Amino acid sequence: MSKEVKLNFYDEIIIITLHEKNYNMFKENIAKNYNIDPKDVDELTIYYFDNDKLKFFIKSEKEFEKMKEYSKKFSLEIHCEIHEESRLYKEKFE
User: Fold this and answer.
1) What sign does the dihedral 54-77-32-66 (CA atoms) show?
2) Is 43 helix (H, G, I), strand (E, B) or coil?
3) pTM
4) Are 83 and 44 in contact (CB under 8 A)?
5) Which residues, in sequence order, are CB contacts of 51 under 8 Å at separation 6+?
6) How far apart are CA 55 and CA 1, in angstroms?
7) Helices (H), the chain
């Protein structure tokens, strides 16, 4: 079963259908939708909030699977941000 979710990269929101089979495919989809190098996706902080406003990070296969299960029950907005300590941040903003 696939589910539409919002991807939010600094207020550039894209609706995607969440049909990826694994975490790596999900990261490739982020790279494609935001026209960034796939290796740069590893430099992003990716997270969502549940209905109780708890923040959940997506940085492993297990966390990706948990997010997929959550998205089947609730609408979901996944946030992507450049981590300040990352190589990408330093190259773009310093």
Assistant:
1) positive
2) coil
3) 0.86
4) yes
5) 74
6) 24
7) 23-33, 38-41, 61-73, 87-93
